[in-house]
Amino acid sequence: MDLNADLGESFGVWRLGDDDAMLDVVTSANVACGFHAGDAATLARTCRAAVERGVRIGAQVSYRDLAGFGRRFIDVPPAELTNDVLYQLGAIRQFAEVAGSRVAYIKPHGALYNAIVHHEGQARAVVDAVMDFDPGLPVLGLPGSAWLSLAEDAGLPVVHEVFADRAYTPEGTLVPRSDPGAVLHDAAEVAERCVRMATKGEIVAIDGGVIAVKAASICVHGDTPGAVQIARTVRGALEEAGVTLAPFTASQV
Amino acid sequence: MDLNADLGESFGVWRLGDDDAMLDVVTSANVACGFHAGDAATLARTCRAAVERGVRIGAQVSYRDLAGFGRRFIDVPPAELTNDVLYQLGAIRQFAEVAGSRVAYIKPHGALYNAIVHHEGQARAVVDAVMDFDPGLPVLGLPGSAWLSLAEDAGLPVVHEVFADRAYTPEGTLVPRSDPGAVLHDAAEVAERCVRMATKGEIVAIDGGVIAVKAASICVHGDTPGAVQIARTVRGALEEAGVTLAPFTASQV
Amino acid sequence: MDLNADLGESFGVWRLGDDDAMLDVVTSANVACGFHAGDAATLARTCRAAVERGVRIGAQVSYRDLAGFGRRFIDVPPAELTNDVLYQLGAIRQFAEVAGSRVAYIKPHGALYNAIVHHEGQARAVVDAVMDFDPGLPVLGLPGSAWLSLAEDAGLPVVHEVFADRAYTPEGTLVPRSDPGAVLHDAAEVAERCVRMATKGEIVAIDGGVIAVKAASICVHGDTPGAVQIARTVRGALEEAGVTLAPFTASQV
Amino acid sequence: MDLNADLGESFGVWRLGDDDAMLDVVTSANVACGFHAGDAATLARTCRAAVERGVRIGAQVSYRDLAGFGRRFIDVPPAELTNDVLYQLGAIRQFAEVAGSRVAYIKPHGALYNAIVHHEGQARAVVDAVMDFDPGLPVLGLPGSAWLSLAEDAGLPVVHEVFADRAYTPEGTLVPRSDPGAVLHDAAEVAERCVRMATKGEIVAIDGGVIAVKAASICVHGDTPGAVQIARTVRGALEEAGVTLAPFTASQV
Q1: Are D42 and D32 in contact (CB under 8 A)?
Q2: Of A78, A120, A130, B146, which shows the fewest CB atoms inside 10 Å?
Q3: Which chains touch B (3 or more CB pairs under 8 A)?
């Protein structure tokens, strides 16, 4: 099982999250590429720190929106979006290579991640960018999203993820953040759910029913209060349960 | 002889210069990388248009300064500058590759170009970025600059350029723009000087004396009134004088 | 009748439109406030030039989006949008005052203009900003929009505009730009329509039927090819028809 | 005696310092205006919080440099700088007014603060902006700086500040940050120095000698580790020594 988290989301003088602590926990780092966060020095530092620990580097591409941290939908025309994604992929690739590694996968950030669950035009735009960048690049995303469906159609390797601290509906989709109980805060409970997902392929949905999930990666958060503690608890519980933690891209050279 | 010009300096809705016309004249395009100009769509379009015409793509890296078009010195600490340059190199490289080519050389822009004539810390920072990017990448610059001197020490291929429309001092340096006669505006006169440089390695300095110059590239401007006309006149005169126009990087694969 | 146009939309080295020519034609200038266009020097220059000609200064507020020129919808949370609009109002007010005038009205730009035709949350956010800024500030907009309706409810003076070069549906709404015939390019035809609107309160809709319109201002464009010529033709035709051209805010001190 | 600190330096999702805690300590808040820090929501929140506590709002204007947090000298031409400062003054003024107060003074930030100690062109540019904004606006700065000298010549009210945690040379200038002992970290020592400055007008210089200083405001930092604790200790010690803490602008309405 892989553990992924958003990292490298500082900008200039401003810091976000404890990247060093998180890099000791996760196996895949979704590294911000400069459009929602991540000045060039942060990209360099994060890529270096990831490589030192054997953590894989993913491109966490975003809308161009520092003021909104990429969390606001922007109605970017698809052709522009393809180029914006390519620009970011080129930048993060450079720092991954200077650090002695490569871009191992792509996982869009924030509002773009959410938009391309349904927005076919933008989903296709991101797929187009990935095809131009590297038609063998794994894409990480939400099962059932337009993004993964179009990526699969294009022949890209598709990887499913689950969220450690999010409640699921009986249909297997995320309970909206605005609903009560949507986000879990108890480290032990989160860890126990992750173990069940990883060992039995099951999640208890918000109505108490059990749903089947198949995911190669679990997303943990790095920037919320208690984030590091929850992530460590998840990792510890998985290891104790005999789950091997390794990048989902481990089979790649 | 090579002809180079700054291109791809539009941004979003704003256009600068007539890139298509200039790409029919020059052999090397210094393509803006997004920090002083050049949104991602412009990078894509410019790289594609250059490749279609066999024009080489150079990375026109800059300070991060859209509002000032990279024309204002910024006292960026060298370590930050190295990363800012790497970020831009990664981005332009991506578009060059998608267009079926590669970054053939680097030529810093505006205030950065001027700063690293003398500012050793920043000059070394740019050299460091180039060494990390590709230790065989040709660097284009002003003869006698700290930038070229440090690049040469680092083992980088160094290429000298002259300016088609600038007056030179008897010492072979540029007459400051603020001095009378610093910039030449007559297309025929500019063209005639370029032919003399290219065929005899001579420039008439502002005091009327003749100085020897050795340059592999002539810089023409693309964004001033009459720029295209001057550039065409220069090219025409060079061809008429039997000078072969080809990228200075032509020997590279 | 008032003539308004978007002005002050240059940014740094990049110029857009011929502001000086347009300021000789219009009676109200929608001046960009820095978020989609308009660096501080442009704001200063545009306000000064408007005041010299007796042209009124309107605040052309926008989403924060230089790369997209404010033409892309951004899902900004209303509370943030209120503050973004206030920030821009404060900035343009400063330059209006230094030029010896004041902000005479507000007209949102581009995607924000279009969004608040229907998006009640954002429309209310802009109204809230105007109420905080000056509860007597006239607002200029599209008849039938949520924006004007909410502004009216809040007690703000509401002013209707029509578009000189756009086709109208039989219901009096704009024909979408993507439809054939949506934009008129013939200066004489555009001018003739403006005269009919101004003198008889009528527009010929795209189906040939005649609809009644009541507007205090006609919007002409400043940044398209031929824009200045069309604007001059419109002004000339209106004057010839005996229509007095004056700012819609002329009654204000 | 007045206590001032830099506040409102968050941006979007990124937070800097503990503004609420600092606002309970200081009497004057240097509020960032959006060019080095401070999105519009932060300006609104900071101005409101300052007014609630009776803390005066100062305009902390800066170079346009979010990536560098305004800490890098930028060679902005004076005329541009005047407009950039006016833009920021207009924006912060708007939020101060909406919060029920006004801009009580100006204190430039970071590299601009440092530059205009000596750089006459930029110092005069900032003075010009203040004269355009409000020729009665107090300016806060370093005794002996070109900035204060030119402000005084222009008739602006000039206010001197000392730094709570900085060592001074025997000549009364700041020991450069790069020198050993330049910054003091012990809260008790810092507080004791502030009391001596406030009650006796004396500072012990780095060579042990005593120098005379006359300042109406003491600058404490809000964004370093332990900043709040040091600021509270300073305030407590001053109050215990019978020093009345009040805004230096208290006499203004």
Answers
A1: yes
A2: A120
A3: A, C, D
pLDDT digits (tens, 9 = 90+) for D156-180: 999 999 999 999 999 988 898 889 9
A126 chain-B contacts, CB cut-off 8 A? none
CA distances from C81 to B74, C66, C78, C141 (A): 32, 16, 5, 18
pLDDT at residue C195 greater than cutoff 80: yes
Contacts 24+ apart (CB under 8 A), D195-203: D195/D237, D195/D238, D195/D241, D195/D243, D197/D162, D198/D1, D198/D238, D198/D241, D198/D243, D199/D241, D199/D242, D199/D243, D203/D162, D203/D168, D203/D172
**Can you tell me the distance from the alpha carbon of D223 to that of C77, in angstroms, rounded to the nearest whole number?**
28
- Which residues, 6+ apart, have CB-to-CB distance to A228 below 8 Å? A18, A21, A22, A25, A222
What is the set of domains in chain C, with CATH numbers?
Answer: 2-252 (3.20.20.370)
User: Is pLDDT above 80 for A251?
Assistant: no
Phi, psi of D225 (to 5 degrees): -60, 135
- Per-residue burial over C28-51, b if 16 or more Cβ lie within 10 Å, else e, is bbbbbbbbbbbbbbbbbbbbebbb
Taking the C-alpha atoms of residue C239 and residue C232, their distance in angstroms, rounded to an integer, is 11
Asked if the Cβ–Cβ distance from D39 to A67 is below 8 Å, we say yes
C30 to A225, C8, C55, C117, C158: CA distances (angstroms): 45, 8, 10, 18, 16
Which of D39, D90, D132 shows the shortest C-beta gap to C91?
Answer: D90
Phi, psi dihedral angles at A63 (to 5 degrees): -60, 155
> Which tokens in the block code for residue B138?
């040709």
| B98–A86 CB contact, under 8 Å | yes
Interface membership of C157 toward A (CB under 8 Å): no
Whether the per-residue pLDDT at B112 is higher than 60: the answer is yes
Place of tokens 């997902």: A197
Nearest to C154 by CA among C173, C176, C137: C137
Residues of C in contact with D79 (CB under 8 A): 41
Q: Find the closest chain C residue to B68 by CA distance.
A: C12
Amino acid at B252: Q
CB-based contact B94 A43, cutoff 8 Å: no
How much is the pLDDT for A253? 41
Weakest-pLDDT range from C2-6, C76-80, D34-38, D170-174: D170-174
For residues B115 and B78, give the distance between their C-alpha atoms in angstroms, rounded to a whole number.
12
Secondary structure letter of residue C152 according to DSSP: H
Residue ranges of E strands in chain C: 2-7, 28-32, 56-60, 103-106, 139-141, 158-163, 202-204, 210-212, 217-219
C-alpha span between D88 and D57 (Å, rounded):
13
Kindly list the distances between the CA atom of residue A143 and the CA atoms of A140, A158, A171, in Å, as whole numbers in the listed order: 9, 9, 12
Q: Which residues from chain D sit within 8 angstroms of residue B67, using beta carbons?
A: 64
Q: Do D74 and B77 touch (CB under 8 A)?
A: no
For D93-136, what is each residue's pLDDT tens digit? Answer: 999 999 999 999 999 999 999 999 999 999 999 999 999 999 99
**How many Å from the N-terminal Cα to the C-terminal Cα in chain A?**
18
Give kind and range of the element (H or E) at residue B31: strand B28-32
Is residue A195 within 8 A of residue A253, CB to CB? The reply is no
Q: What is the mean pLDDT of residues A177-197?
A: 94
pLDDT band at B222 (very low <50, low <70, confident <90, very high): confident
Residue with tokens 């002889």: B1
DSSP string, C100-121: T--EEEE---HHHHHHHHH-HH
Measured at the alpha carbon of residue C199, what is the angle toward residues C198 and C201, in degrees to the nearest 5? 70
Question: pTM of the full predicted structure?
Answer: 0.96
The answer to whether C74 faces chain A, any CB pair under 8 Å, is yes
Helix (H) and strand (E) counts in chain D? 8, 9
Confidence at residue C253, expressed as pLDDT on a 0 to 100 scale: 41
Instruction: Tell which of D63, D72, D118 to mutate to test the B interface (max B CBs under 10 Å).
Output: D72
